[in-house]
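User: Quick sanity check before I run a bigger batch. Here is a single chain. Can you write out its predicted 3D structure?
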Amino acid sequence: MSKNTKKSSRLASHLAAKTLSNPLASPIEKSLAGSVLSQTGTENQTGEELQAIASKALRDPKSDKVTKTLAGSVVSQSTKDR
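Assistant: Done. Predicted structure follows.
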């Protein structure tokens, strides 16, 4: 399996932290935010299940800008084999 060495950007990490502290954030947004933060300054990669959730969120026209931004960061840090 190939390794993706991308890490969360400072802006994505900041947005993720704000999302996790937002009581109005959806469970999906919080899951995506947690993944973004876990990939900040580490070599962690997106798991298959969360990659599928993020991909679905990106395709959903009802997803808001925050969700799509977090999902884009999560998908970009997936392994290259998926």
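Helices lie at 10-20, 27-38, 48-59, 65-76.

User: Great, the batch can go ahead then.
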